[in-house]
Design goal:
The protein has 122 residues and is mainly alpha-helical. Helices cover 61% and strands 10% of the residues. Helix 1 crosses helix 3 (37-49). The chain starts with 5 loop residues before the first helix and ends with a helix. One of its GO terms (molecular function) is DNA binding.
């Protein structure tokens, strides 16, 4: 899976949010200042080339469908970050955020509770 640029990730988030869409639908959910239509068209063409979306011609427009789900994208790139920057240790990742004060003790307790709940539901 090829890494996406920031602009490509923004477009993918929009497609994931609204589902199959034409460019005008996607452009409509962008905050101001919106990118030019032609710029968004190029971004989505790149997503198609990278096999993140596929297009289907409907009349005189293209309908774009996501081929990659958000969870799959997150998994692919988070595991790369953990591997490359944290020696393949998720404990090191969490420790880093705790030391940088990006995550609190209460957040960690809540995460542990969520994990425990998920494990008991299995």
């Amino acid at each position: 899976m090829e890494k996406l640029t920031v602009q490509e990730e923004d477009a993918m988030r929009g497609i994931w949010k609204i589902g199959p869409c034409v460019l005008r639908d996607l452009l409509a959910i962008y905050p101001d200042p919106k990118p030019p239509y032609t710029t968004l068209a190029s971004i989505v063409k790149n997503l198609e080339r990278k096999k993140y979306v596929r297009s289907q011609r409907v009349g005189n427009v293209h309908l774009y469908h996501a081929l990659v789900q958000p969870g799959d994208y997150k998994r692919a790139f988070m595991s790369g970050i953990v591997s490359n920057l944290f020696g393949n240790s998720y404990k090191e990742l969490v420790s880093f955020f705790a030391k940088e004060e990006k995550i609190s003790t209460d957040d960690l307790k809540e995460i542990i509770s969520m994990i425990e709940r998920e494990n008991t539901e299995k």
